[in-house]
Design brief:
With about 100 residues, the chain is mainly alpha-helical. The chain has one domain (about 5-95): Histone, subunit A (Orthogonal Bundle). It is built from five helices and no strands. It has helices at about 5-10, 15-20, 30-40, 50-75, 85-95. Helix 4 packs across helix 5 (about 85-95). The chain starts with a helix and ends in a 9-residue tail after the last helix.
Amino acid sequence: MTKSTQKEIKQQLGASEQKRLNKKPIPHICDPVIARLARKAGIEFRISKEIYESIRTEIDKFTEDILRDAVILVQSQNKKTIGEHQMMYAIKRHGYNVYGVE
């Protein structure tokens, strides 16, 4: 989000919502979690400390993009709750397939 968009959103929200908006959307992802994800992805080598922060920023960008698309889908359907189907469409829109979910 750009700063002008954030300012517009903050003007429309109450004080408690503004506090929640200032927090990061994803809690800090610790190094062992990233290491487990890397092992599941097939990495068998050590991971340097510099890589962890770049992985965190990429995870934040990815989830922000997916959630932005899901919110747009929900708004276009005049709903207030993001459901499973909206998340699936948002993920598919980015070119990823999710197996095991109908």
